[in-house]
Structure formats: structure tokens, C-alpha cells
Design brief:
Layout lengths: L1 H12 L3 H6 L2 E8 L5 E5 L2 E6 L3 E6 L5 E7 L2 E8 L1 E3 L10 H10 L3 E3 L3 E4 L13
């Protein structure tokens, strides 16, 4: 009975380890070779007057994160941030409640990379044909 009590207490202390240790958001950094300011739209939320490198937090979760990068002299670029399994959630071991909390908060996943390079392409100037 004594060992069962110790096991029960330790399992309750280890509940939702990935949520506790990692949180529901992760830091990522975007970089580019352009000098002018840009606008990043991350899952519908606009970040204006961005200079590179730019570090921000994105939500963890099972869905990919879509980043749209816009700058007046360059074409719009899209970056897809895929998610991978967060090994910290393995600490839950057999604690079903902990797995459920980590899944609900998205802490079971993390961005595939912490650094993303945005390669802007200059807009082509339209030539005017004269007859």
C-alpha cells in the first residue's frame, strides 16, 4: 500500500509535463536578406514593420502554421511550419490525464525547426509596349 501511495503521488506530480516545461507556444526566428521592413501574417495575425532577424512565439498544436511574408518591392512568400512530436511529453509515461492535457494545449508538438529563412524575390516590373 505504501508503494501505491508513492506511485500515485509521483504520477500526479508528473501530470502534463510538456505543458509545464515547454508551454503552449514556441519561439521561432525568421530571417531574410532584405533590408526594408516587411509584414508577416502568422495564422491570420499581422506583425507589421518587421525587420530581420525577427523572433516571435507561435502556437504549438497539431495543425501546421502558415506564415505569409509581404514587402512592397518583393513578391509575397509563404512559409509552412510543420510540427513534430515533442519528446518531453514522454515523461507522462502511463498518465492518461497528462497526455490529455498535453494534447489539449498542443504541447505534445513543437515546430520542426526554430529558424526559418524567407527568400524574397523582387517583383518584376511590367514593361509598357508602345506601337
Amino acid at each position: 500500500m505504501k508503494y501505491f501511495g508513492i506511485f500515485l503521488c509521483s504520477s500526479l506530480l508528473m501530470t502534463s509535463c510538456a505543458t509545464v516545461f515547454c508551454g503552449s507556444k514556441a519561439k521561432v526566428t525568421f530571417d531574410s536578406d532584405i533590408a526594408e521592413k516587411a509584414t508577416l501574417t502568422i495564422d491570420g495575425r499581422k506583425h507589421t514593420n518587421v525587420t530581420f532577424p525577427y523572433t516571435t512565439k507561435i502556437r504549438r498544436g497539431f495543425d501546421e502554421t502558415v506564415v505569409k511574408a509581404e514587402s512592397p518591392a518583393y513578391t509575397t512568400e509563404t512559409v509552412i511550419i510543420n510540427k513534430s512530436f515533442n519528446a518531453v511529453s514522454v515523461i507522462n509515461l502511463l498518465d492518461i490525464l497528462g497526455w490529455g492535457i498535453d494534447a489539449a494545449t498542443g504541447a505534445m508538438t513543437k515546430p520542426e525547426f526554430k529558424f526559418y529563412q524567407i527568400d524574397f524575390q523582387p517583383k518584376e516590373e511590367k514593361s509598357i509596349k508602345q506601337d
